[in-house]
């Protein structure tokens, strides 16, 4: 049985939808010998649309990456679908996030690279056959695609466009530290529950509840002390009254 290329998991307690991209991003999947046709790839834009359409925009999405990239068209479509989805999206690089996979990461509200992970940015390339005119036309198409890709990165990058293009032209492998320095990610580490936007509110409510319980406990303790004081004070008054009418008064 073939292992799934995209794993989906839902955490009901936190309303978090987890998507794992652990393979090449492409439109066409394996050949199906039952239908004698190629199946749709689980990393295709079509498959992602089905996943995203089923996720309420009030929930959260976490996307885990370990992919060498793949189809520019499919990856760009996934990027745009993620950007248009109203949920809070956290992208976490678990291994490699290369080529178009790193472009998809840029659609996330929070971009995280784990320790020891890598990202690769490079000029787009295409395998093409044809005459000289065909090759020149394809080169022009690649230039247009490159302009679009650079524009996506520059929305949040802290380096100049010239520097970014130079790194892509040389094919650059980025460590988490360099990616953070260039504004291509937001954090280094792993996504914790604290990454959720409403966590601070939950912590405040939890602390407030603990404080209320402590105050309630103190009030109860003070109430018990007051009752104990009243009880012992009444006993003392009764003892003094008894002494004032008995031998205590006679010898007083």
UniProtKB/TrEMBL annotation:
GO biological processes: protein quality control for misfolded or incompletely synthesized proteins
GO molecular function: ATP-dependent peptidase activity; ATPase binding; serine-type endopeptidase activity
Annotated Gene Ontology cellular component terms: endopeptidase Clp complex
Keyword annotations from UniProtKB, A to Z: Cytoplasm, Hydrolase, Protease, Serine protease
Domain of life: Bacteria
UniProt record similarity statement: Belongs to the peptidase S14 family.
Name the UniProt record assigns to this protein: ATP-dependent Clp protease proteolytic subunit
